[in-house]
Amino acid sequence: MDVIIHGKPYNGSSQKTPGLDSVLCNRIVDGFFNSMGSINEAAFLVVDATYWNNEWYSIYTFELYKGIRDKDDRQSFFAISIVLQKQYYCLVSEVYKKLKKVCSDYVVGKYISDKRKYIVSDLEDKLLFEGLVKEISRDYTNLLEDFDNGFKHLHGSQANIFYNPIDCDAKAFVQSLRLNGRVIVCENTPTKDYLLDNVDKIKSEFINAQNTIKVRDNEIAGLKKELSDVKATLSARRQQSDKQFREWENGTAALKNENETLKSLNESYVSTINKYRNKFTEIVNIAKVVDKDNKYQSEKQQSGMKSSVIGNRSKLLIVSFTNTMLLIFLTIILCAKSCTDNSVRDIDEIGNVNDDELVSDTVATKGVTDTISTSDRNCDLSIFNIYDSTPLVDGSIIDEGTSVYIMVKEIDNYKLHTDNLKDGDKIKIKENFKVYPIDSSKPIIISYRSDDINKTNPRNKITLHINE
Q: Origin, by domain of life (predicted)?
């Protein structure tokens, strides 16, 4: 058994027993000096199996590190290494106890103070070293085993494998040393019994974790299915909305054509009515002349009974003709009004043509020269909820952020106007947008009109209230 002490009182310093190869000694000392601080513990034992110069060596280094200060009050360390050639100790726990006791009983007070600070400038005092070697050898025995072929020739740095002193006499410890070349014994390492006691707990936690994962996986699968169903529903509703939109467009085009036809027919009726109005005026004027002539004949009494009879017949004929023309005139007016009213009613039921567009019909049926209304034309302004394609009537209450789109029969020089709607100047017809009020306590007003606000048609304006 050879012994080395090494550490850093000021700088690196060491001393060895005479039988140890100096090169191997320097290798051990330099290795620990260069790796100082790699294990941040107060005290620990490093067991190495080293193949050197065609021989196996077992090296047991007990190191004091955490809290050790050098003469300049810097972080330092103190270590005792026992070196065996061709053999290794079977009872590593005894090595740990022996070196720990030597540090406590001999090193502290001679090399290091009880405050864990160096009290020597170097480790070259031979008397102190010889006393330390005697302290190690006193009452120390251990079982030895020869190195076998199970030990691996390792190159480079080894991984740190930790054992508690309680477990370091087991065969598992020797096997770890064979395969890794280095094992560290430290009291802060959990014992194998402690780890075994926690195996059941770890297994239980593992099973619980797996069950939780399964539950989460099922929840995720369910959410994915719900998401897929929602997407399918939204796609179907969008297709339905597109279909309805195309139907509305086609219906609007058909109604426009029908409206143009009714306008042409109405103009024909107006022309005919004006024609008969002129004829009626002529007849009335003739009746007035005849009546005036009869009065003149009566006053003069220049004619006899025959003349009177002729006058009366003429008058009766004229009155009869006048009544006939009046009947024809009234019949034409009634027919024109009936046709116009039915057309207006049919179109209004669909909601794409309004009374303002047929105002000339009303003028014709009345037989007067009323002026055309100064109100904007009805443009069938409609606002639809994008999620269920339901129209929002004037005065509807909706949630803030509801997605909607606007449908309207577009007219030149007419524009969308909004009041109390965020980004109202950016909305467009037939494009989705979300409803956010500027002031949630006030309603939102959306209208489609000409630039003259005084001509706003009530049918072209929709008021929405935000649900509080």
A: Bacteria
